[in-house]
Amino acid sequence: MTVSDRIRIKDVRLLSNNHYTLRTTTFEWRRANGEWQTQHRETYDRGNGATLLPYNLRARSVVLVRQFRYPAYVNGHDDLMIEAAAGLLDDLSPELRIRAEAEEETGYRLRDIRKVFEAFMSPGSVTEKLHFFVAEYEPDMRIGSGGGNADEGEDIEVLELSIDEALAMIADRCIVDAKTIMLLQYAALNIFR
User: Which residues neighbour 94 within 8 Å (Cβ) at sequence distance 6 or greater?
Assistant: First the structure.
């Protein structure tokens, strides 16, 4: 039996299609005991994305970005977010998209990128799946200042931190972005051992 055998979609209504797509769905779900239960869920579809952590093994450093995130602000985060470079795929492969995002946000043109995993970040309501990458960087790979795309409202500061400092910023609650925490933990366990 697959999940498809346990769900019957009854109604899907579009609630918003401004920047991204918000739908409400009524469906029947066959519970583990065999009974069918009617449920209602809203799903927010913003497309899939990719994120990347540049690291320098010799210097024991990583490159992150700092920027304003309105949704975090309205949920009580009165500071700029420190994050790994990321972006929506916009009909490109995850590898092509993350190369472009890394260059746009950090100023680094990375050579060898490596996909380490994929994850749904908030599967209870958001459809987005993120593709997670790491890439080694050297100072001579920096071809620009980064900073993002001002036409898209981006105002990004590039940060180069030691891996120890970045990990400490998780404990100090200076880094509260899930994708960044996941990549830093991955780096601590698999790269900077």
Answer: 48, 50, 115, 131, 133
How would DSSP label each residue in 37-98? EEEEEEEEE---EEEEEEEETTTTEEEEEEE--HHHHHTT--SPEEE-EEEE-TTS-HHHHH
User: How far is Cα of residue 2 from the mean position of the Cα atoms in its chain?
Assistant: 28
Average confidence score pLDDT of the chain = 96
Q: How many CB atoms lie within 10 A of CB 36?
A: 12
Distance CA 14, CA 57 (A): 48
d(CA 69, CA 154): 10
- Report the SS3 class of residue 100: helix
The answer to whether the pTM exceeds 0.90 is yes
Residue type for position 97: R
CA-angle at 164, arms to 120 and 78, nearest 5°: 60
- The contacts of residue 191 (CB under 8 Å, 6+ apart) are 55, 57, 134
Residue 39 near residue 28 (C-beta atoms within 8 A): yes
Indicate the residue type of 82. I
How many other C-beta atoms lie within 10 A of the C-beta of residue 44?
A: 15
pLDDT, tens digit, 9 for 90 and up, residues 111-134? 999 999 999 999 999 999 999 999
Q: Tokens representing 34?
A: 């065999």
